[in-house]
Amino acid sequence: MTPPSRHGMLRTMCRQTSPACAHSGASARFLSATLLALTLLLGGCASLPGNIDDVCSMFRQNEDWYDAVKASQKKWGAPIHVQMAIMHQESKFQHDARPPKEYILWVIPWGRASSALGYAQVLDSTWAWYKKSTGNRWASRTNFDDAADFIGWYMNLTHKKNGVSKWNAEHQYLAYHEGHGGYAKKSYRKKPWLMRVAKKVQRNASRYRSQLKRCEKDLDSGWGWLPFF
Questions:
Q1: Are the C-beta atoms of residues 222 and 66 closer than 8 Å to each other?
Q2: Is 49 within a domain?
Q3: 177 within 8 A of 194, measured Cβ to Cβ
């Protein structure tokens, strides 16, 4: 028996819910387009990794992530392990991460510390700058592909403006946090806590780099997502 087409199934669904809809091919096409749009929208929201300290495990769980950071590396020259270490620090890979809410007298809500949002914790103004500079007008901070492209773009600017190697995760993160102007003024030297965090980012990047050596070949071949690798 030949299975029904997608439009055929949609018409059947439509017929069960509305007699008028049953005679409208346009309605079925509308439902199909709606489902496709929802699929594309939700495609950027991958499942939260089970082990954020193992980059190979994360890429096996969300295979599209590897394609995204690989594309960013090819486009901007940003090493995969550095991109992932920055995201680890910024959001722990939560697509809708935001700064915690602030309160007056511990009770009255007073908004959030900043407008930072998404995998890369990008401010509204910085995201607008990125979209205008790259022409990526539909980019979303909650989409992993766009977040990876943003990090690569910003790292490339840091290299051009501040002379920081794209392989230097510690100082790339300091510039990421302080901005290019702040980094140039060495504002981070007045923030011992931030310098400790940057060293943590460097350690995570080094670990990710070592882990990638054992799974990158399989990921490139398309077999890396299988659980037995």
A1: no
A2: no
A3: yes
Which one-letter DSSP state was computed for residue 161?
H
Domain limits for position 36: 6-43
Take residue 159 and report the two structure tokens written for it: 């290299």
- Please report whether residue 228 resides in a domain: no
What does the pLDDT average to over 184-199?
Answer: 98
**Can you tell me which residue has the tokens 């690989």?**
70
Per-residue pLDDT tens digits for 77-134: 999 999 999 999 999 999 999 876 554 555 555 454 679 999 999 999 999 999 999 9
Spatial CB neighbours of 103, under 8 Å, sequence gap ≥ 6 = 109, 110
Q: Is 147 part of any domain?
A: yes
| Inter-residue contact 5 to 28 (CB < 8 Å) | no
Q: Is the pLDDT of residue 59 over 60?
A: yes
Whole-prediction pTM: 0.76
Please give the pLDDT value at position 22: 41
| DSSP code at position 189 | G
Number of domains comprising the chain: 2
Residue pair 171/85 in contact (Cβ under 8 Å)? The answer is no
Token pair recorded at residue 102: 């602030």
Residues 68, 36, single domain; the answer is: no
| Cα–chain center distance at 100 | 19
